[in-house]
Amino acid sequence: MRKINYRITVNITQKTMKLGFRAKMPDEMQGKRIRVQAVFTQRQVERRFPMEVVIEEGEVGDQIRADAEILLPYVFYSPPRHKVNVIFTLWCGAEEICLDDQPFPVQKELFARAEIVRKRNLFKFGLCSLGLPFLLVRDYFKEDKNFIKAAKRANDTVYRISGYNYSARQQNTDYFAARYRKYIAKNKVNPNQILFLSEREPEKNGNLMLVKKWFEENEPEVEITTFINTKTVDQLRKKELRDCAFKCATSAVIILEDFYPQLHSIQKRSETKIVQLWHACGAFKTFGLTRMGKQGGAPQTSMNHRNYDLVPVSSDTVRDIYAEAFGISGSKVQALGVPRTDLLFDWDYEEKKREELYRKYPILKENRVILFAPTFRGDGNKDAYYPLEAFDVNHFMERQPEDTVLILKNHPFVKQKFTVDAQWQDRVLDLSGEEHINDLMLISNLLITDYSSSVFEAAILELPMLFYAFDEKEYMDSRDFYFDYSQFTPGPVVTDFEALCEESAAMLQNIVSANEQADLKKFRETFLNTVDGCSTERICRKIKTNYINI
Length: 550
Description:
This protein is of the alpha/beta class. The protein contains 16 helices and 21 strands.
């Protein structure tokens, strides 16, 4: 693809930059997902900032229009010491488009961030408490009559004025940060110690436990410590917060596989490195700081994720996405693989797991198996649901071959149950919450899903996939994707139930086109090119070589 010229507009007022990007849309990019990033660079440090993209139709052709309003003091995790330049990257699907680079400088002084020193004042807190009803009413209307948002905004106001607040979460986070500062002042880092940190119960074959197991079995001189507590920060006792803060302050490496909120309230010591294994494979739905300013997204002032030192990912294709989502330099995101995918290359494990599942569910052995595994709708655990009326189990089974068994595998957040008529009870298994989805893929002939990240594991196993996207527009509006959905999916996409029934029956008869097979191969090469069964060892050796002093 030829090099693209572009023009920019820049307006800086009181450390806020309004940035515009304009370029003519090449014919070969028509109908594809376009992403634009403003890349702030200073020597070895960079920050990829997502811009809002709109495609404008014009008489002389379509135009790419991207805009962003950027708070400069929060672009970098630490204020820059060297000159800052801004360039742009343009992505068409998974392909980076070559731009006629026109870097422009920005004064480093504009990125200076005033240190906030909160001095607690009980008198001011008392006055704020008296005025709290007024604050709640004011913010109730400012937040479009959303009481939860209004309460949070009022609490933030009280916190800013008095140094006190009503949030147990914030109080415990502040306590954790204060203890951490005290511990780093009085204690040295143990150069051989690795802390495995999580606020949810890790899966036995998940990223965190596999890395922990490797170090235990292969590096006996490494000291392993853990803080795995399923309580959220507002539920932790002071003793637990002190224990966590001490382990964070004295460990050479902290390893995570998910967001750990209080870890981002600290200015970590330079001797400690944070490795984020993340729980997902590849990249599909937008996450992290990509969602700044959107529903459920963090504000630009957020420090979430931004102190990671190493993030292993499944391929070079998704490195820029993780760098953007975590607000870190691309050099910290490395295509080293995903530990939990190693089992998908372990033939002995797969054979044993198949035999185990066949013993537990004998009907699976002599029949063709469809695994229906949709993702949830809603904002999260508390309001997650799946519209059961969109998938009529009984009608679906009527349309499938007689030797078909259907496994229902709802997302763990979804508590609803599908209605199954008596005539299908022996051919429909609801295994939601009972078996790991990766294990169920081993005995399946077809995966039906929608927007679930399970597509990456299915692609490794070369399992045929069918995508049921009856609400694509609504889901896109609430969540958004990094890639065009229809071009991303390694299998047919259907949008109505009758088409789903027909296509699944055909795919069970092994009617998979050459194009679909080619799409699956291309998908693996694009998103999974470092996933080879050796991810755990490769990541662990990287950590040992670079961060552990034995």
